[in-house]
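Thread: quick sanity check before group meeting

JM: Hey all, I'm pulling together slides for Thursday and realized we never actually wrote out the predicted structure for the chain we discussed last week. Dropping the sequence here so it's in one place. If anyone has concerns about the input, flag it before I start.
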Amino acid sequence: MTSSWTLNYDWPQDATRQKVVPEAEVVVIMNFRFDAQEIGRELKDPGHTWIHLYRSEDPNKQFSVYSTSLTGNMDWNRLRNGNLGGRAFLSLDTLLAYGTGLEKLVWNIRGGPDDLGVTESHAKGVLPIATMRGKLAKIPRLRAELDRKTGKFRSECTPPIVVSG
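JM (edit): ok, ran it. Output follows.
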């Protein structure tokens, strides 16, 4: 299994001089991909699952149905090569507030509860939230650089050569 995360922010059209990106408007997208060939068997769609984030930095710690966690829904899709991909969406401000004082949070992908309310953990790992804390400050500067380059597009960029036959 491989996992990655990205920060997603849609820059408003009327916010050309925006100096700060609001954390509440940034979405953390957690991506997961399970490799069927490496696992050695066909992967079944897990159905409806949830991402659980725990206030711990130890991914080997066992969590129960009674453990406090920040949760979110997960979407799954089967890829043409038999691999399985999943995504979870979380608000950055909620995630950072939940992880106050920690460098990482442990995540578990959990299925639905059984008759006794117990959920099974399908996969686990850590999310490095410390690296997310400083990312937003860079966005207005990068946006200003992009706007400057866009203004010089016609004079600095040559159009691609189109060949038709």
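AS: nice. The mean pLDDT is 87. The first strand starts at residue 2 and ends at 8.
JM: adding both to the slides.
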